[in-house]
Amino acid sequence: MLFKPQASTSDKPKQFNSHELERQTVEYTDSSKRFYQVARDFSKQYAHIYSARLITFRNILTPIVKKKWSNNHKILKLCELRDKGTTCVIIGTLFKFQELKPSILKELSDQLEIIPQPTRTHFVHDSDSLVLEDELQRIKLAGDCIDVHQVVTGVVCALLGSEDEDGIFTVKDVCWAGCGIQKPLPSISGDRYIVLISGLNTSQKADHMFSMHLLVEWLSGLAGTNQYQEEVSKIARVIVAGGVFASHSNEHAVNEADFFASVELMDSFAAAVSAVAPLDLMPSSQDPSGIMLPQKPFHYCLFPKAIEYKSFNRVSNPYECDIGGFLCLGTSGEPIKDIMRYSKIDNSLDVMKKTLKWRNIAPTCPDTIPCTPCIDTDPFIMYNCPAIYFSGNCTEFATEIYEGDGGQRTRLVCIPDFCDTQTVALINLSNFECYSMKFSLN
Amino acid sequence: MDIDTYKSNLNTVKELILDENKIVTYVSLSKDLCIHVNDAKSLLHQIVQDIRKDRPSTKLYVCYIISGLQGNNCGITTVCTEDDVEKIKKSLKLVFYDHVYCVSRGLQAADNAVLSSLNRFEDLSLCTGLIKSDICTKRTENELGSLISKKRTPIVEPKTPSIQHKKSNEKVKEIVKSSIENFAKLSSVKPEPKIKSEPEKDVQNNPKTPPKNKNNKTPPKSSNNKPAGKGIAGFFNKSNGVSSKVKSSEPKSQTPVENVKIKDEPLHSNSNLTSVEESPAKKSKEVTNHNKSLTLIKKNAKVDKKRKRVLHVSDSESDTEANDPFANEMDVDHESEDEIPPTPTINTVKITSGIVNPKKRRKIVDKTYTDEEGYILTKKEEVYESCSDNEENTKENDNEAKENGVKEKNVKKFESSKNTSGNRDQVKQTVINEISPKQNKKKKVSPTQKGNQKTINSFFKKL
């Protein structure tokens, strides 16, 4: 009844009987091991990520390429490209040359000449060009099959085409890794909801404070009639996808006093929610958890009250977990926003679809997103196709079902900034539907 | 809820609203009156009706909470005034519920700030009617404690410090190498049971461990040494090498004393030992010896960190310090740094041989020369020296023979602890209780020697 129009209560007499309800639970497994245990050796170079990524994707792409283009074309490394004009397949990482891409060297040189630099939010220019690189060398790409404005640096793909006399590779077709194998989605008898929140932004004490109160009252099952409370008891988990203390849209720095106050407020909020439902708390770029992806979980000292509850989970960003057999994967929104900055894809949902297609949550790591220099593996590769794929700190709520080539079904959810929209997202695991709920003062 | 309670609650809420002019929400009511939230909702609804019926002139400001579906799967939960209720209801595709949210006297509009200040998040847990999950239980203190310790995950250390560490490792390796060689000699030439022949049980246990580690050889040592050398200790190790050069002459003359005895009668160690034990006071001495040796070992174990300071103490020309096995260690370090093979490991084991005549000792003194080409040569020269210096120091507590016994043990211990530093910690632990007497003794000695050192020593004692 929580969101089902058919279960109308308008005809029924209101019921406000005192009754005790217990919240429904679903099985939960934290699958974020690869984010927690990422190597944090800062003496290493970032080249290792690209190399690990390429090796992994070469293994992924080879069978897909063979399936897509049959065995007619050889898969060559760039150093093996000798016969000009012969059609072949090359696998490598895309690199996008962007004139407007911020560069510290450029900034410094420009400063010396005192040329005012316009502040940019997007770095796309018509002159942008693509190259493909593997472990040894790069090759310039040309052709209409691949749109430079629809891809970003760091994406690994297989290209069908041939090298011309000028050493430029003319692309005839592109093969992406695709979203991978998906675990069969379980069928759950009875509704089970997951609540997704983002951008609580407690350091900015604004209108959304009252909305936060309404949210907690709602999650606690205080508001509503008996029947409604019964439905609320089916909310099995709450995930906060970043923007906890400060939202990333917040350009101005948070002052110290506000921040301290916000820590206390957030602790109370987390304790209140953890007291009634399992809560997973993800950090994001503006939160005190280090800026490099994958971000470590918050320090427990920030949450002296909430940490007392077993149901309070501090988790990483990105975060992957298994809830009732549904694989949930998501970030606090940094990779999605970054891709939007460096491409002409302007819709969060479209970016999410692209990342599923590229099988990489954050392809622009480490190029334009700070990231730990991982050595052996690239933690951002999607090894399994998620059932629920979310991104926090979006401007507005949006949701869609993505259907993969292999029949995969993924619920994409853009979780809006709660601070700005006072909106949370709900997913019903039983029918895979997604809704939003806004808490506001009229 | 029985009728009496209901009526009294009703009156209480009326007082709150009418007399105290408070804004009452269903949540605050549930918390204050300890009633179920649903009862609080009914109560508020009832009160609004009652007041309007009884006192039509009284203006009441009533807020409602409405939840419903706007369309496109977008739900809304909003708090609005009485007047807006109908309007909002009409705009909704579906209404989930609506009920009174808060009531207050007057006409003032409750804004965000006022409403959010009515209740704190902490208060919600005090309400009755929360829908809790069975896993939302509190952690026990132990669980919290384990959480704290668990979260201190080791971070991969950057390589830069390890470079510094490598240097110290090289030193250590040299020492280790030489000690391995020495041990090899030792095991072939000198029977280990000599140590076992000491009657003390505890002492037996301790010496037993070194042979075990001998089998394991040095790897454990070096690995165990690493952490110690990394931090401040590593720093001190380095500086020690330098400082030991400066003062090398003095302790050297002492360590070779021990060398003599070792080399003289390597095979008679057993008999020597027994003779040593027989000649001086027996059991009581052994106990004290044991204590002393252990404490000395303890000191030695700590030497890594404290060496630098203690060095200065030994510079003060006191024989006690020079006799201290830990002076030997300084030598070892020094020698290793100068690439002169460290001998004390063998030497020290057989000190007892010279104890036949406590007053006079024949010593082989390692004398180091620098030849024309700049190489450092070590020559062994036999020298007769009286042991009066040693006696003077040790007489305070024990007779000379006893002291020698102590020395012997100490040196043995020291040797074992040096060669198998993995044992250090173990020995440390076993000895902890026995440290204090020795420490006191040392305290007495050092302050009298140098005013400056007093403070530094006492500082380390505190630690």
UniProtKB/TrEMBL annotation, chain A:
InterPro entries named among the record's database cross-references: DNA_pol_a/d/e_bsu (IPR007185), DNA_pol_D_N (IPR040663), DNA_pol_delta/II_ssu (IPR024826)
Predominant place of localization: nucleus
Subcellular location: Nucleus
Domain of life of the organism encoding this protein: Eukaryota
GO CC annotation: delta DNA polymerase complex
Residue ranges annotated for the DNA polymerase delta subunit OB-fold domain, each copy included: 45-174
Gene3D superfamilies: 2.40.50.430, 3.60.21.50
GO biological process, alphabetically ordered: DNA strand elongation involved in DNA replication
Pfam families listed in its UniProt record: DNA_pol_D_N, DNA_pol_E_B
Listed name of the protein: DNA polymerase delta subunit 2
Automatic annotation (TrEMBL), chain B:
Biased composition, class Polar residues, residue ranges: 268-277, 417-438, 446-463
An annotated GO BP: DNA synthesis involved in UV-damage excision repair
UniProt-recorded Gene Ontology molecular function terms: DNA-directed DNA polymerase activity
Region (Disordered) location: 187-351, 384-463
Pfam families noted in UniProt: CDC27 (PF09507)
Biased composition (Low complexity): 212-227, 237-246
Keyword Nucleus: yes
Key words, A-Z: DNA replication, Nucleus
Domain of life, per lineage: Eukaryota
Subcellular location: Nucleus
Biased composition (Acidic residues): 330-340
GO CC term (a single one): delta DNA polymerase complex
Residue ranges with Basic and acidic residues bias: 191-203, 279-289, 392-416
Protein name, entry field: DNA polymerase delta subunit 3
